[in-house]
Amino acid sequence: MGALVQAGDLVAGKYRLEREIGSGGMGVVYAAVHVHLEQRVALKFVNADAANNAEVIQRFWREARAAVKIQSEHVARVIDIGQLDGGTPYIVMEYLEGDDLDNVVRGRGPLEIRDAVRYVLQACEALAEVHVQGIVHRDIKPANLFLADRPDGSRLVKLLDFGISKPAFYEQTDGSLTQTAAVIGSPRYMSPEQLRSSRDVDVRSDLWAIGVTLFELLGGTSPFARGTMPEVCASILKDPPLSLTQLRPELPSALEAVIAKCLAKDPNERWKDVGELAVALRPFGPLGIIDISVERIVGVIQQAETTKRPTRPPPTGESQRLGASADASSSSSSSSSSSSGPASPRPGSFADGSSGLPPLPPATPRAKTPTGDRTTPIGTPGLSLAELEGTLVEQLGGKRRVPTLAIDPHHLTLLALDPRSGFLLSLVDSSCTVEEILDISGLPRVDALRILCELRERGVIRIKT
User: Fold this and answer.
1) Which letter does DSSP use for residue 78 in this model?
2) What is the CATH number of the domain that holds 40?
3) What CATH number has the domain bearing residue 286?
4) Are residues 72 and 107 part of one domain?
5) Domain closes at, from 241, 275, 307
């Protein structure tokens, strides 16, 4: 496996790489320092072997987008994104001190009930937000639950590695099962339906993986056969799980029953969602602390059920599609663009000598009309927010059109873009529609549409017909 970067390299003129701290089939992670802010961060890169694989690159960007949409403290925060000179992407994340739960169990043995349940419920706090966004993680396992140290000495779980692609796996020569560049998911933690067809899984597949994870944290071993990949898969598909109380007789049978429900072969027989699972686990965690986690998990799910805000473009009807704009605009915040935007590009110019896109003005201020029945952007007399949005959408050809890059991706670093424009441009991957970009970005819809129109007018993007 070749190396695109190495310790000592300066990335984007500000991130000094210190040492490699992790690697897998698709990527490698370095500890780094922001040389101007003296901030410690972690940079994740695509491996050299996968750098020319378009599918891997798109999946890499999707990982950043998925993580940045989740506000829970139990998800590793994405700080920045960018590209190396050759166009290979990287993600800048918060730097975590600690260890993953797989290493913790290997080093110390099975955990106490209160600790195992507390850690799993912290992961479920993150999963609650992930699931209401319409995302299935598909790679829940102890190695992706990082036990991070807080400044006060306490510890919390961070959910890592958002995998949302089809799985394809292989067996290493040492018999362990791992990921290649095409792999999202680890067979030992996959549900029966995920082993059969990754395309059709839903949140209940993550609940299966949570059950396997909790079993391993408490029992120190997998609930199903270990060995070669075929042996593992066959055991998951046909065998009942091992008895947790036989491994640890002191564990309550009621806790084993909760885990067994996670591991039902039929998804319809599992817990409906992480909210139900959290309530079932409540009696086994530390008093007070566990109540906070359960209330957060249930609250996220109940709030999503109350608002019923779609995470994908509404199906049909102009009034239905435009009616969602006010809600999307009001729920956006300036923190979305500041915390999730990409690295500031190098100053440069287009081939025609221009200096790139001009910075867009701040978000459009709004004022109530005298009638009080609609919100009108200041400086746009007579147009409601929905009408202005409709005009901008019309310029782009419709919300279901797919923007694509109109310039060589390697030249992106030559564009002098403001952070909001650069972030929106990073979402253009030839697969997301205009509506999906609006939803993912978190920016006010009218502002995001104006940026897309600017990018199109300057020839940076084109719209597929």
Assistant:
1) E
2) 3.30.200.20
3) 1.10.510.10
4) no
5) 307
Tokens of 258: 């909760």
What is the distance between the alpha carbons of residues 136 and 127, in angstroms, rounded to a whole number? 9
Active-site positions? 139
Q: Which residues are CB-contacts of 326 (< 8 A; sequence separation ≥ 6)?
A: 375, 385, 386
With respect to residue 312, please indicate whether it lies within any of the assigned structural domains. Answer: no
Contact indicator for 79, 41 with CB cutoff of 8 Å: yes
Considering Cα of 66, then 300, then 291, then 254, what sign does the dihedral take? negative
On whether residue 54 sits in a domain, the answer given is yes
User: Model-level pTM?
Assistant: 0.62
Query: 């697969």: which residue's tokens?
Result: 431
Dist CA 409 CA 133 (whole Å): 29
- 274 in the same domain as 178: yes
Structural domain tally of the chain? Answer: 3
**What is the rounded distance in angstroms from the CA atom of residue 418 to the CA atom of residue 347?**
11
Residue that is written with structure tokens 């949570």 in the block: 210
Is 378 strand, coil or helix? Answer: coil
pLDDT in tens, 250-280: 999 999 999 999 999 999 999 999 999 999 9
Containing structural domain, residue 176: 98-307
Question: Is the CB of residue 89 less than 8 Å from the CB of residue 57?
Answer: yes
Q: What is the per-residue pLDDT for 236?
A: 94
| First-residue to last-residue Cα distance in the chain | 40
Tokens of 46: 């695509």
Give the position of tokens 């006060």: 152
